Amino acid sequence: MRNRILALSKALALSAAALTIFALGQSETRADEVLIQGYSNGCFAAPGAPPCVPPNSPAPQGPTTLFGLTYQNSTFQGVTANGFLGVGGNPVPLAAAQGVNNFGSIHLNQAIPATYDGATFTLRVTFTAPQGINGSSTQTFTANITGTVRSDESGGIRIDFDNDINNNGILFTFNDTNCEPNPLPGQAPPGQQVTCGQGSFLLRINDVSINPGQTASVTGDINAAQQTTIPEPATLLLLGTGLTGVAAGVRRRRNAAK
Question: How many CB atoms sit inside 10 A of residue 215's CB?
């Protein structure tokens, strides 16, 4: 009888240990492993007009202009480190095809002085990774962020983006079920799968100030990014096999004791 109790206690302890390892794996948060990528578009609206609706395409959209202000779109991608990813690549020259790793470029023409007070600029940021942002069935999520354009006495302008009431950023949550090979070179060996996960991050767009004749990037950051790992199917299969083996061992000991 004592041997049966000891055997059963050992089996239960092994099961509890396996479940504990599984739970820890489920709750493991890795703030430096969130893959972020997507593209931006934008457009200007004249003073007094309703905010415009930017196009939604990863292809170069062509410059959009209001008086002497010109915007050109961009793509971006990167992996957060310690929960942070800065998106602030150099601006592209006026009328260039497309920017890289920023949220677009803005050029202010020195030869066309104008008053921009009351004008607006709408930035559209579309994420293609991580997938499943905010439960999206299309695997992308779009944020329209409108900025108020103001002129200064020297002919420069400032675009004040409305991130949120405290300027902390816009919160996005995601449930990424994409385990395809990693699209970013250097992050993982060829063919290795990306870890799936659930998590969240904050998107914040920096205000833009620019003087006549200059080109500036629209920059921002991904902050407070965190991802909880979802175990891969192989891991779940291995765990299930182990628990099945424990149960089978308990049955064999019971039968032998009888």
Answer: 17
Reference 88, options 80, 97, 76, 98; nearest CA is 76
Strand locations in 206-250 (E): 208-210, 215-217, 220-229
Question: Does position 28 have pLDDT exceeding 50, yes or no?
Answer: no
| 8 and 133, same domain (yes or no) | no
Helix axes 233-257, 2-27, angle to 10 degrees: 170
Q: Taking the model in full, what pTM does it have?
A: 0.72
Q: Which 3 state secondary structure label does DSSP give 243? A: helix
Same domain, 21 and 51: no
- AA identity, residue 175: N
Q: Are residues 78 and 166 located together in one domain of the fold?
A: yes
The verdict on 132 and 66 lying in the same domain is yes
What residue has token string 């949220």?
103
Neighbours of 123 (CB within 10 A): 24
Q: How far apart are CA 152 and CA 170, in angstroms?
A: 28
Q: Work out the end-to-end distance of the chain between its first and last CA atoms, rounded to an integer number of angstroms.
A: 11
Kindly report the backbone phi and psi dihedral angles of residue 170, in degrees, each rounded to the nearest multiple of 5, phi listed first.
Answer: -100, 125
Q: Is 170 exposed, middle or buried (0-12, 13-18, 19+ CB in 10 A)?
A: middle
Residue of 100, 113, 97, 114 whose CA lies nearest to 63: 97
Closest CA to 71 of 96, 25, 104, 93: 104
- List the domain range (segments joined by +) for residue 18: 2-25+237-257
pLDDT tens-digit series, residues 188-203: 445 444 456 788 888 9
Residue 152's identity, in one-letter code, is D
Task: Tell me how far apart the alpha carbons of residues 227 and 193 are, in angstroms, rounded to a whole number.
Answer: 16
